[in-house]
Amino acid sequence: MLKGVNQWCFPEGTPLEQIFKISREAGYNAVELNVNPLGDVGLTMETTASEAEAIGRLAKTYDIQLRSLSTSLLWHSPLSSADAVLREQGRRVVEKQLELAELLGIDTVLVVPGAVNEETSYDECYDRSHAELALLVQEAEKRRVRIGIENVWNKFLLSPLEMRAYVDDLQSSFVGVYFDVGNILHNGYPQQWIRILGSRIFKVHVKDYRPNVGNGHGFVPLLAGDVNWAEVRSALGEIGYTDTVTAEVGLYAHSPLQTVYDTARHLDVILGGAAR
User: Fold this and answer.
1) Considering only CA atoms, which of 33, 35, 3, 14 is closest in space to residue 251?
2) How many CB atoms are closer than 10 A to CB 171?
3) Which of 115, 161, 177, 191 is the most buried (most CB within 10 A)?
4) What's this model's pTM, rounded to 2 decimal places?
5) What is the DSSP letter of 5?
6) Distance in angstroms (rounded) separating the CA atoms of residues 219 and 260
7) What is d(CA 242, CA 104) in angstroms, rounded to the nearest whole number?
């Protein structure tokens, strides 16, 4: 498995060249970039083909692989919204992710499918997001880029059986799961999800969590929470997973760049190697 780190693990505004350089120094194989709001560093909805290709070349100069692409924009224009205009905006976000991924040689984009809240019921979230993803399948297949549905704290797809059915019903090998180990611990056991979802898992995010805290303050540095990493590693081995394991963790309040270096060592332990 390959060690990856998300762009969000760096202080906001960190130039991409510095991100790639530090990631290489810290021992990562890959960096996960994000499609950001306008004005942020890196990829946005306005990034041109030539700009994206230049970013790809920059990553290669530091021997950094680009293997997945995330975004926060779908929280603002969810595919589950009752507003057709917002759903269309969300669809355009995913289409841009797919376009940029193809240009950068990235094989998977992370998609948050929607959110259940007081305005959007569970069944409405399911039906609307599923219909939007069905429209996006053709684009994914055309570009040969996979859509990975992430499990997040959105009160949706709360069981591995439902997640499995949700992606299977889209009937495309280009739709699967972007599995987040730490997010599951709030209401389940990651090793069980991994074994049930199997080859549907395209990519893996790692963070750690203490369920007894009961809220977002429970997220802690890797190895400091309650994830059973030996079982997670075993489950990933059983399903034959050999792709990126990408850290998506909060920054330290002081010396935030140290987060990146420490997390690389934590990943060595998680993946069964020796920490340095």
Assistant:
1) 14
2) 9
3) 177
4) 0.96
5) E
6) 16
7) 21
CB-count burial class (<10 Å; 0-12, 13-18, 19+) for 231: middle
230 and 206 in contact (C-beta within 8 Å)? Answer: no
What size, in residues, is the chain? 276
As given in the structure block, the two tokens for residue 170 are: 């889209």
> What is the distance between the alpha carbons of residues 72 and 89, in angstroms, rounded to a whole number?
13
**What number of CA atoms fall less than 13 Å from residue 62's CA on the CB side?**
23
Element (H, E) at 140: helix 122-143
- The tokens for 29 are 């194989």
Q: Which long-range contacts (CB under 8 A, 24 or more apart) does 168-171 make?
A: 168/200, 169/130, 170/130, 170/133, 170/134, 170/137
Matching residue, tokens 């599995």 = 179
Q: What are phi and psi of 206, to 5 degrees?
A: -125, 135
Distances (CA, A) of 186 to 70, 157, 215, 259: 22, 13, 9, 23
- Residue pLDDT, tens place only, 11-60: 999 999 999 999 999 999 999 999 999 878 899 999 999 999 999 999 99
The residue type at 240? G
User: Above 70 in pLDDT, residue 275?
Assistant: no
> Quick one: how far is CA 226 from the chain centroid?
21
Write out the H or E segment, with its range, that includes residue 148. strand 146-150
The type of residue at 176 is G
Determine how β-strand 219-220 pairs with β-strand 208-209. Answer: antiparallel
The model's pLDDT over 84-100, given as tens digits with 9 standing for 90+, comes to 999 999 999 999 999 99
Give the distance between the most distant pair of CA atoms in the chain: 51
Q: What is the Cα–Cα distance from 83 to 70, expressed in whole angstroms?
A: 23
Distance CA 160, CA 268 (A): 27
What single-letter DSSP state applies at residue 271? T
